[in-house]
């Protein structure tokens, strides 16, 4: 069964454009290098434009675990995006109907 | 720009199978009747199996508004699913990177 990760990022004030630029690069790398990532979407809250919701779907748990070990996850998300966040909440779901 | 609605449902204890059955029917109806609904996914929390996250993407705001007026939204979600919920939290996002 496919597995879904949601990640809600609250970006530090004044850094949203920088984070969006990094996430555009990240999305391109995921699409190129991770065929078992079946959805990777970045959404921006209408209520608070400094809040982003990443919706990520993987073919299975192994693909999600592999994602976290990729060079682009380490160099873009961990090294550059996370320091620009005030908050980061992650949740895991089984994709039960699609 | 595409628009995303997330809906987090907390299902009353003992009713999850009934709600999932209704949402399977709903998903089929959305796919048949709403070509401007570009994603309609139901996900079940690993942390709390009575929590569902619906991730819905529409081509534009008009398509989201039209969704809420469909016969299947009224007869399945409003009339049958909502009475089986203890909680329902909805958020709106712009789909900025996909």
Notable features of this structure?
homodimer; alpha+beta; 98 residues
Task: Describe the protein's architecture and organization.
The structure is a homodimer of 98-residue chains. The first copy, chain A, has 98 residues and is of the alpha+beta class. Chain A is built from three helices and four strands; from the N terminus they run βαββααβ. The first copy, chain A, has helices at 16-33, 61-67, 71-81; strands spanning 3-11, 37-45, 51-58, 85-97. A four-stranded antiparallel β-sheet of chain A has the order 2-3-1-4. In chain A, β2 and β3 (51-58) form a beta hairpin. The longest helix of chain A has 18 residues, at 16-33. The model of chain A has no long low-confidence stretch (mean pLDDT 98). At the A-B interface, α1, β2, β3 and β4 of A face α1, β2, β3 and β4 of B. β2 (37-45) of chain A pairs antiparallel with β4 (85-97) of chain B, so a sheet runs across the interface.
Short overview:
With 98 residues, the first copy, chain A, is α+β, with helices and mostly antiparallel strands. The first copy, chain A, has helices at residues 16-33, 61-67, 71-81, and strands at 3-11, 37-45, 51-58, 85-97. Helix content of chain A is 37%, strand content 40%.
- Largest interface summary: A-B, 26 and 26 residues
**Total beta strand runs of chain A:** 4
Q: Give, in order, the helices and strands of chain A.
A: EHEEHHE
Strand content of chain A: 35-45%
Strand order, largest beta sheet of chain A: 2-3-1-4
The poorly predicted ranges of chain A are none
Largest sheet of chain A: 4 strands, antiparallel
- The count of helical stretches of chain A stands at 3
**Roughly what percent helix of chain A?**
25-40%
Structural class of chain A: alpha+beta
């Amino acid at each position: 069964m496919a597995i879904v990760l949601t990640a809600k990022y609250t970006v530090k004030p004044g850094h949203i454009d920088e984070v969006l630029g990094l996430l555009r690069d990240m999305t391109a790398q995921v699409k190129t290098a991770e065929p078992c990532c079946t959805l990777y979407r970045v959404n921006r809250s209408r209520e608070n434009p400094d809040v982003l919701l990443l919706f990520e779907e993987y073919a299975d748990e192994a693909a999600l675990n592999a994602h976290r070990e990729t060079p682009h996850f380490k160099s873009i998300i961990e090294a550059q995006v996370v320091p620009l966040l005030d908050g980061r909440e992650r949740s895991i779901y089984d994709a039960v109907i699609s």
